[in-house]
Amino acid sequence: MIQKKLEVTYQPFNKSTRVPPGTTLFSAAHWIGLPIDSTCGGRGTCGKCKVQLVDGGGEITTADRKQLRAGELESGWRLSCQAKVYQDMTVNVPELLRVPKAATMGVNRLVLLDPNVRKVYLELTEPTLEDQRSDVERLQDALTAEGFDMKADLAALRTLPGALRDAEFRVTAVLGGDQLIALEAGDTRDQSYGVAFDLGTTTVVGTLMNLRTGMAEAVGSTLNGQAPFGADVISRISHGMQGEEARTELREAVLNTINGILADLYERAGVDRDRVYEMVIVGNATMLHLLLGIDATPISMMPFAPTFREPLYLRAREVGLEIHPAGFVQTLPIIGAYVGADIVAGVIATGLAREEKIRVFVDVGTNGEIVLGSTKRVLCTAAPAGPAFEGSQIKCGMRATDGAIEGVTLTDRVELQVIGGDVPPRGLCGSGLVDVVAQLLVAGLLDASGKLKSREEVPEHPLSDRLTSVEGVRAFLLTENVYLSQRDVRELQFAKGSIATGIKVLMDVMGISTADVDEVLLGGSFGSYLNPESAKIIGLVPAVDVDRILSVGNTAGEGAKMALLSFRERQVAFELPEKIEYVELSGRSDFNDSFVSVLRFPDLEAVA
Amino acid sequence: MIQKKLEVTYQPFNKSTRVPPGTTLFSAAHWIGLPIDSTCGGRGTCGKCKVQLVDGGGEITTADRKQLRAGELESGWRLSCQAKVYQDMTVNVPELLRVPKAATMGVNRLVLLDPNVRKVYLELTEPTLEDQRSDVERLQDALTAEGFDMKADLAALRTLPGALRDAEFRVTAVLGGDQLIALEAGDTRDQSYGVAFDLGTTTVVGTLMNLRTGMAEAVGSTLNGQAPFGADVISRISHGMQGEEARTELREAVLNTINGILADLYERAGVDRDRVYEMVIVGNATMLHLLLGIDATPISMMPFAPTFREPLYLRAREVGLEIHPAGFVQTLPIIGAYVGADIVAGVIATGLAREEKIRVFVDVGTNGEIVLGSTKRVLCTAAPAGPAFEGSQIKCGMRATDGAIEGVTLTDRVELQVIGGDVPPRGLCGSGLVDVVAQLLVAGLLDASGKLKSREEVPEHPLSDRLTSVEGVRAFLLTENVYLSQRDVRELQFAKGSIATGIKVLMDVMGISTADVDEVLLGGSFGSYLNPESAKIIGLVPAVDVDRILSVGNTAGEGAKMALLSFRERQVAFELPEKIEYVELSGRSDFNDSFVSVLRFPDLEAVA
Q1: ipTM for the complex?
Q2: Gap between the Cα atoms of A24 and A6, Å rounded
Q3: What average pLDDT does range B523-538 have in this prediction?
């Protein structure tokens, strides 16, 4: 997977970048913040992205012939979106004709507003005896003149004669890529929307985006309606194993969830469903398989081979999602059975594969997905952490809902942060669990092996009276009825040990140590709530300066929004599976060796 | 539309051809009977069609990079199916590795058996921890190794995990182009079928073809179920104008007709519907629009612009045609509202656009479609002949069914040829009408202006007692109750005048005279039954030697079969609309001028 990089230099800017063979001049420029002008977004149809070859390259593509004059071809002009780099090259970029709209999204990513969905207003010439082109050709020719390709499927063909004549040949064509989604009467360019969905096993979040302004119009979220069939992916898949009917049940449950959110978004934003043309949806491999009605059984069993990994672009009516029926649902690619499209979205949102600094991105959950790398090389894996971080298998564990202790500070007393504010604490959620263990380590009430001290060992400690035993097992009382047991500490040790081992294996494969890591990014619905310092104290993440451990929020949702707003970002996401090396832990002997060594908590000096 | 031709020479054969710019080296070779070896049929995926450039050309395509080694590229090897001719070129063709199967079809056309539907048997390696490729990739990689691209739609994805595992990863992949149609357990390559349909306004004919042998397994035909809604395209369209429901009625009527024929073909040939993967269907523009549920109203009204003209490749389940549900329905392109896919099929079947000799192809019917040309240039038009040739508007006219007089010879008595053999004659069908008029001209009972003689003008003629008058109009008695009236002669004059004028206009546009015409081809369900000599005597066709006037049968059906059996022929059909110049008669003043001059019948000496 590692290929020799090639150098491309852009004049007159004198900016260079190193890219894998086969990258287009257009993409390479975009990666170093040098957006080349383009109406068609790199599809080879508008001709605006032409550059002049100074050194290297020279092939003429069919698109070049269509868009450029013979004289231009001779002088070395080529479409940068079609010209692929197969040797070191230098090119001249003409002055920018327009400065595209941009927005900052994800983790400080500058995203150019260039959605895959485009609306083009056309005043077509009507047919005459001298001009008997078909409706399709009339529309295609007008769109070609504006720099767009267009294909119409059977459903679109059926609407064409009526739509054109009812609107007296003044129509707005809505394109998803080069596919015709709709022909609307008159000029409707001011109404163009899309939705971005993060389809989590537990929670589903949807955002209605205005594709014209790049702004969110409304956000909605709810629990995944598949919850009654099991809390995690394995139990969902098990349910699906009962047969076709059970899979339909799972599929309909999640469709209802998403369509419910959609209806709510439309109502709140006052947007018509028929003006919503595209959905970008990300989720883990299982969630995407079940949404599409594809048996996910092989994902749950060795050797974990999913049915598909490639990004899919499907008509909404075919999937059953209630945007414009002829609109499209775009999934992002999957890297492996346990590194899904949500992680690909996370890599886009963090820009991890596009910056010089070396970063670790961890999505902490039942499976800890880990990505390590920089623009040079990117590795990823999934570490089976078990349910501790979700508050499960923990004596007083609970989900992060009202009454859950999500933060703990131990001084001479116990300070608790409880979700829901004034409600009485009912249990510990994942971030609270990590906090209390970290604080007990700092307070000297827990040793590095993970053993809770007894009241007798630390009689002078102001919190010693909270050390007790419950059902014959040592415990630390947080409130009258919420406590942390010795067994809970062991569960957490296994969970954090698994993720820490995953990180260590990736660092070993890359040949780097903690000192080489510039940043640690905590993402996902749980990771974002983790206290970075606590994560460091328990040794969940490498011991870098605590201000280099960042909570990056819902990177899956952010990545989905970026792919919705920017065709270029989407292309980058599509290319990621080729760039990211997946390291399977199950097969590695060093995983088990490392695992034992990282079960202990780090020395406090080491993480100070 | 007329482009400068470029010369391509193939070594070591020293064979040359002149082709329009943009033609591939592969296609150009095929046209001169030099089939270059290929597994993928010119899709750029098998790498077998490589040739070495001797002179001209040189561009390297993406497919070249994928299929050829760097050393080969340097020595000038290119995939001939990707290399387009933009200048005069000379290339070396390596020795043929295999001689493809071929069959003679249409009008002496040699067709290489190279169907678009391919079956590939695969024994896939099963997934392991070291090989976690998705099912899609596993299949794609195996097919790539065999020289095939593959894409799977959502319906295919849903069947994939089960199909692979139930068959223990030994499957036959069925491809329509690069789309996955089915995955069948085990090796099923010996069962591969397709159907070719000629969807006529009156009659629908279907042929079940064995794609492995190229042989027809069964043929079936029946009247078009749309008949109750009108005999001709205009009355069908009028019915459809009543709205969506009426169009659904029309659509379902023809679907029932075709599906009925299909069920009958399957039963007679003992072939399972799920082994029938593709249908090629041709028909006039109206028939194709109505079949697909597309409003055909604009076809019936000035300026006659259809909704689509391009060839469509649609899933059978989407169209409602009962072959394999994931199989494909391929329509051939339409040239204009009144020169449909049936005529494109006719051009393929006759090879009219691919031979040196200049030929006129006429499909005689309510609309006479005319194609004139050779490999150098091709013109076409549609002449509104009216219903006379269908036996309509003729006093004793009838369809060509039992009891219709289809042939007439006049000596000193009247000899009749009646459809159905021993049944009593009930009326005149089109070919009988043409015959009797021609024979009356020869017998001297009808003058060149079209006037029937009276009994008094030719008292000595052995047939003079058959000259009579019916309801005050002159008539010629064929039997006691079947006669030809003076008005019928006028109707025929208008009908033949329209077609003769169409031919004359095309000859004028091309700048040729009758002496330059090498052959006249009479096609279509009616034209094929015409007596060539009679057609010549009445001046329907140019006055060439009668042995150069050929009945060529159901060229529409033959062309459909050729496109079904040969991907290359299909490509040729796809390119025809670009090559054939359509001449619209409605807008031309010379049409009306010529029309008057050709209403008369030719002098008998001129056609002798």
Answers
A1: 0.84
A2: 12
A3: 87
